[in-house]
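Weekly structure sync - notes
Attendees: PM, LS, DV (DV joined late)
Agenda: review two folding runs queued last week.

Item 1: First target. Sequence and structure tokens pasted below for the record.
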Amino acid sequence: MKRTGEGLRIAFLAYRGNPHSGGQGVYTRYLTSELTALGHHVEVFGGQPYPVLEDGVRLVPVPSLDLYRKPDPFRIPRPHEFRQGVDFLEFGLMCTAGFPEPLTFSLRARKVLAARRHEFDLVHDNQCLGRGLLGMLDDGWPLLATLHHPITVDRDLELAHARTLRRKLTLRRWYGFLGMQCRVARQLPRIVTVSESSRNDIASQMGVAGDRLSIVPVGVDHQRFRPMPQVARVPGRLMTTASADVPLKGLVPLLEALAKVRTERHAELVVIGSPRPESRVGETIDRLGLHDAVRFVSGVSDEELVRLYAEAEAAVVPSLYEGFSLPAVEAMACGVCLVATTGGALPEVVGRSGETGLLVPPGDPGALALALSRVLDEPELRARLGAAGRARVLERFTWRATAAGTAEIYAEMMEERAAAC
């Protein structure tokens, strides 16, 4: 038996791990790097789009049919691509408007890991929660999962904003994997989540026992995401990140707030992300006449992102709900004044309103416009909030702290397993 919590061999599962796919990819990249720096051996078993990893962390590809790849999403594979039963399952679920990746990745990962049972001490799943994880438990793996927030929230918000019956039926089918994830989550011995808000919601919405939920906040690369005083702020420039154009991210209320702000002063918005053709974002920009005031930027490097933060007078997180919010801590790490909502865990992340950022109710364009107008009009307030936000990140939200907290849970698991032997 290895010494608990020291030099562990970790198989880390990332079913969709590219940083440009959202927060799960960022979490995979930096947590595994810091766990390696703490002396653990980590291999990432990743599905497409494959994770971007730091030096010292090995990627083990777990290839799929990659049915949602760009530039041909929802593609029809060629006959020679079907090599095993899980391939037919993946394609069949897509054809019936389901989202197969959590299930099919977990089944493939179980098969790959079965041949390497004695090479790892534990398996850490990053919110795949596919049925194959229960098979891994049957195979004898010590296993835990990170659940950033319950996807039930995303589903309910999207359904509430769906404007046609067809859209609602399609969404219900797409989110069909949630039933599986809830069943799997309820059977896992340990789940890590990122905030008290997420912990409460996972317990109430997914039925996971509270005593099996541990909180380890997410971090930020505070050396990469840093203030750049040599870069001049652009007057009136606001910035937000909407890597997924879904109602949850609150981009439409932000656009409505921007229109209100622009009635009295110059203001412009840079959005990190791309709008979906079927979303309300494009028509909102048309309705409000904001074409000259909104710019979408996607696929930027970390260094380009940091420069964009440096150019902004304020960053905005207008989300209706967040389980944590990487964009919030990235903005704070860059020393940018932050305006955010009180949706989900944002008050836990941002801190007390008026001390480290300004907080407003979610989905309230009027309140958001007032807060944005205030920070644009008060340079001293912007400077004070930006400095306080950076200090809060350095105190609470570094990836080293995330890795250390996660490693403590690994140690507890190994101790419990050793005691049971």
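Item 2: Second target, run right after the first with the same settings.
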Amino acid sequence: MRFMQEVTIRVPLHVSGFWVPYYGPTPTLTGSVGVGLTLKPYLTAKVTDDMVLLNNVKIQGGLRNSIARLTGVERFGVIAEAPAKLGEGFGLSAALAIAMAISAQLASQGKLSLKDALRHAHIAEVENLTGLGDVIAEALGGGLVVRVKPGPPGLGEAFSIKVRDRIGVSTVLIGRTTTPEMLRDFAGRISLYGREAIARFLKDPGLEVFAENARFFSRLTGMMRPEVEGRVSDILRQTLRSGCVINFFVKKSLLVVIHGSECLDEVTRKLSTLGRVRLLSIAGEGTSVHGA
């Protein structure tokens, strides 16, 4: 349909620093509480009535099947672009699920209830073990997102804290860990240290305290091994000492370094010894839909 081809969607990415999963009797009542950063470049998507493409790669099964079942629509699609791949720790599966749910709902009803689309995206994420709290965080956006009640928007609760300008987030993929593997291998420690990190953060919420507790969480859960922490501390020693690098942590197998823009070149150069560096920045807005 012509109107669908004019609809575009923009969804921020999301990297959780620490969290606690909650498993309810239904996917809607399942989710997580915690704190994460919403990031740009955004996933951008154009609504179509056919296949789902992400960075020119066709996406089938899994999330798409869940969205189709939840909405009762088989014929829907998006052409999406994002600065990362699925499974790397950026909450990209949630961003894509949001875009797909919006497309399917438009195909079904011809008008958009963003709340319903976000609920379908959350359920699809839970069913496919690809995420528990990314949908509500990416829906809200606004910098640091604090999730205080698990579930999709409208049932779960979250608030955002604005992050000051000129903050960069440099990332390096240092391995490969899927979300199901993470939830399985680190489950007990995630719950234990996630609660502690959240409690410490809420006493003095802000970017520096977030970064400090994200490092604490990733170390004690085992996501950041001692040799990785030692090497990163060593190569970033000067920028950590100067305060330009605020701190770093590991989510799944993604090394995340939060720093000021004034040391971007130095941080990028030093991190390049570990692998390919991706530079992102703080997303001040959440999910938006244009043309619906």
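Discussion on item 2: The domain at 2-161+285-290 is CATH 3.30.230.10 (Ribosomal Protein S5; domain 2).
Action: LS to circulate a short write-up before next sync.
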